[in-house]
Inverse folding.
């Protein structure tokens, strides 16, 4: 098996404009996208590329000097119109570990309060020449609008109840690490599916990667005709958890509830929380996931959230690696 | 069809590595604090073989690691296509170590520049020495190797590949027109 080739990397010898030898490029692929807007338009190969790249990036965060020079001179702006600790911090750490400069703008400290529109904010940011803009917004499609308007790469960090692609990617990385592969697993997603962008992105991603996805929640929180996304619907925890390899609990999004979708949190917890009794129905080596922040005692008991099956904090660690991979893959290169 | 010429066969490669192993031991007066690090991808199996030889000669365990320099390349973001990341494995600090950096072919020197930057992120080695199987010339940076298997003047349009097989019997260095 050939193990190395060196050639053609001198400007005079360059014919294709590619300065790496052909052999080193075997098995390589680019993410031929300007933006990362949704899991829906990714191919399984692209998801694999992102996850493989992220797996390599994990090692950097374990070093004493947690930094590589790859994105030196690039500027990443995070533009958050909705509250966030984890995702914004994760993007900022990811960018900094790649040596990019980061600027964080949140709605509460920006000119949005003075009535500036999203378009005007975006055009003004563009005038300062950033390279990548990460946006979270309460309106579905906000990231798509920016992507169409600006020449910069846009990363969707959550748009309304539409998608949260980086969350699904970090979830898939975590599952792949723990289970070896996603294909063939029974994965239960439990909670308010209708309002959850995390659920939507994960359903697109996990079904593309060959998992059997089961969703579960109160009937009024399950969108009609969701079966068309390739999932099975359960209305009891018993059916959802039976022999599950992975259980993904969603946060009850109290801020997105219109009034009275359910009578009380207590009643919800009674039927749909993950606890020491119902987790026994799942496989012995089940892993428990949650995108955070947790409502302890509502969708999951503290005992399970902090227990041996929980991979919730590993999800956070993997989030940094996935975001590093995306910043790297979307930077430079051929668009 | 492209012209192809074998410039080094399995025995030649084996002899070169044996000589380099002895030179490394002579220059460093043994294996104290010695660490061998192969640059992905071509340097990795050479580093393994060199490590085996050093251990066999001195009867001592020698630590080794692998280095993926992709993220340190000076063209990391400007090349059209990118090599897949394969990851770095250096699970120990390099402070006060004598690092033998191993690659298959020394060409422009840019890979070695990137590798040295990467190594410095793992501590402050006492020294770094460079061992390569082939030095083909055409340096673009002030870099030279400490241990060289063979110096092979080449034209810029030629490709030089070091092909190593698992059992070593069909190893060869090939030069072909680009």
């Amino acid at each position: 098996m050939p193990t190395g080739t060196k050639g053609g990397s001198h400007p005079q010898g360059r014919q294709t404009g590619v300065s790496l030898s052909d052999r080193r490029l075997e098995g390589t692929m680019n993410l031929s996208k300007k933006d990362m807007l949704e899991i829906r338009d990714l191919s399984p190969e692209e998801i694999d590329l992102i996850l493989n790249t992220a797996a390599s990036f994990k090692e950097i965060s374990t070093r004493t000097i947690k930094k590589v020079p790859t994105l030196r001179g690039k500027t990443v702006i995070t533009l958050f119109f909705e509250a966030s600790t984890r995702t914004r911090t994760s993007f900022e750490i990811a960018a900094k570990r790649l040596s990019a400069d980061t600027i964080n703008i949140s709605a509460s400290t920006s000119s949005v309060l003075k009535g500036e529109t999203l378009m005007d904010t975006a055009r003004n940011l563009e005038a300062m020449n950033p390279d990548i803009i990460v946006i979270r917004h309460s309106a579905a499609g906000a990231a798509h609008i920016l992507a169409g308007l600006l020449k910069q790469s846009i990363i969707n960090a959550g748009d309304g109840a539409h998608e949260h692609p980086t969350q699904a990617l970090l979830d898939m990385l975590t599952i792949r690490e723990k289970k070896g592969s996603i294909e063939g697993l029974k994965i239960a997603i439990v909670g308010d599916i209708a309002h959850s962008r995390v659920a939507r992105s994960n359903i697109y991603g996990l079904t593309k990667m060959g998992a059997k996805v089961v969703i579960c929640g109160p009937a009024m929180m399950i969108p009609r005709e969701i079966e068309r996304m390739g999932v099975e619907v359960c209305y009891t925890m018993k059916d959802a958890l039976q022999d599950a390899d992975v259980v993904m609990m969603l946060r009850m999004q109290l801020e997105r509830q219109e009034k009275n979708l359910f009578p009380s949190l207590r009643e919800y917890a009674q039927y749909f929380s993950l606890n020491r009794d119902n987790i026994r129905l799942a496989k012995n080596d089940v892993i428990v996931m949650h995108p955070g922040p947790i409502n302890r005692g509502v969708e999951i008991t503290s005992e399970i959230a902090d227990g041996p099956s929980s991979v919730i904090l590993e999800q956070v660690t993997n989030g940094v690696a996935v975001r590093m991979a995306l910043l790297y893959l979307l930077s430079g290169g051929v668009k | 069809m492209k012209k192809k010429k074998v410039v080094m066969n399995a025995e030649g490669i084996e002899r070169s590595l044996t000589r380099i192993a002895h030179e490394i031991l002579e220059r460093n007066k043994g294996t104290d604090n010695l660490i061998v690090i192969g640059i992905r991808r071509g340097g990795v199996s050479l580093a393994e073989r060199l490590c085996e030889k050093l251990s066999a000669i001195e009867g001592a365990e020698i630590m080794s690691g692998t280095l993926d320099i992709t993220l340190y390349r000076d063209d990391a973001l400007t090349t059209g296509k990118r090599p897949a990341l394969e990851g770095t494995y250096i699970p120990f600090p390099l402070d006060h170590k004598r690092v033998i950096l191993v690659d298959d072919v020394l060409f422009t020197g840019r890979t070695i520049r990137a590798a040295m930057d990467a190594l410095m992120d793992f501590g402050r080695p006492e020294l770094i020495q460079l061992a390569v199987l082939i030095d083909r010339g055409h340096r673009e940076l002030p870099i030279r190797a400490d241990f060289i298997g063979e110096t092979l003047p080449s034209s810029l349009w030629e490709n030089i590949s070091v092909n190593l097989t698992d059992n070593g019997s069909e190893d060869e260095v090939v030069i072909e027109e680009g």
Q: What stands out?
A: Confidence is low (pLDDT under 50) at residues 1-27 of chain A. The CA atoms of residues 122 and 146 of chain A lie 7 Å apart.
